[in-house]
Structure formats: structure tokens, C-alpha cells
Design goal:
Blueprint: E1 4-10, H1 19-32, E2 43-55, E3 63-65, E4 72-73, H2 75-85, E5 94-96, E6 103-105, E7 110-112, E8 116-125, H3 134-144, E9 148-154
Antiparallel strand pairs: 1-8, 1-9, 2-8, 3-4, 3-7, 5-6
Helix pairs in contact: 1-3
Length: 155
């Protein structure tokens, strides 16, 4: 069986909200992604990570581009990187890209489907919607106290 996960993360990978703000955001998420009418409610999982953790799009990932030379970066390289950091997270997002050898950070690579990095995540499992609108993301960010972005994973 496969799952879809729509995650909301802060735009700054290091930022974490206070717990009171999260209660207000989760209430809004429940309104925006209520599940199927008369069916099962979606599962909402809130996680504070000790270190920066990858929030990737799973099987949705189609391509990664280099922001320095615009070349495609092998997705196997990305998969190996995630595997190497799956248990302990990322102490830094600084990398040397394999295409041109330039220095950049993981959070600015050009991911085709969005991927991100965060120390805080709200994951909505099997939502009955694809994406939040820009207005909804703004409302979620306002309640959280920091701008947010969304990642949709298929796992």
C-alpha cells in the first residue's frame, strides 16, 4: 500500500515554533484537510526534530537541478545522501554539487517536486487534497508565526 503525505514546514530550516502556536495551526489544518465527508479523518502528525531533517517528496521526485550550472543532478546521488543522513539528520546543508563541483546548500537545489529541510514539520497523511493554496499557506504561516512551504510526498 502507498501513502501520500502533505507536509507543512517553516521556510527557514532551523526555525521552530512554540507549542501554543502549533495548536492554532493544527486546528486550521484540520479545517483545511478534514478528510472524506462521513469517512475517516486524516492523520495529522506534528514533529519537532533535534536537527535539520530532510522532508522529501518520495516517489514524486522527477529531477534535481543545480542552481550554479543548471545541470541535472543524479537522483541516485540524492537518494544516497538521504540514506546517509536518515538517522542523524544534517548538521549543515552546505554541499559541493557533483555536476560542477561548486559550493551551495541543499535547500536551494532546484527540486522538481518540492523538497525541503526542517526542524519542525506538520505531516498530513493521505489528505483528500493535493496542495494548499497560496492564501492557505499564508494563513498557516501567520498562525505559526513564520512563513511556511509545503512538500507532497508519495511513499
Amino acid at each position: 500500500m502507498s501513502d501520500d503525505v502533505l507536509s507543512i514546514i517553516p521556510s527557514d530550516p532551523q526555525w521552530q515554533p512554540d507549542r501554543d502556536a502549533v495548536d492554532h495551526v493544527v486546528a486550521l489544518v484540520e479545517d483545511l484537510a478534514p478528510g472524506v465527508a462521513g469517512g475517516v479523518d486524516v492523520e495529522i502528525e506534528v514533529t519537532w526534530h533535534d536537527v535539520v531533517t530532510a522532508v522529501d517528496c518520495g516517489a514524486n521526485l522527477e529531477r534535481i537541478g543545480c542552481p550554479l550550472c543548471q545541470a541535472a543532478i543524479d537522483t541516485k546521488w540524492w537518494g544516497d545522501l538521504l540514506e546517509a543522513h536518515c538517522d542523524d539528520g544534517f548538521t549543515t546543508l552546505a554541499i559541493e554539487v557533483p555536476c560542477c563541483g561548486g559550493s551551495t546548500t541543499l535547500d536551494v537545489l532546484d527540486y522538481d517536486w518540492p523538497c525541503g529541510f526542517a526542524r519542525f514539520e506538520i505531516a498530513i497523511w493521505n489528505p483528500e487534497r493535493s496542495w494548499f493554496s497560496e492564501d492557505e499557506l499564508t494563513a498557516l504561516g501567520d498562525r505559526l508565526g513564520h512563513p511556511v512551504k509545503q512538500i507532497r510526498a508519495h511513499i
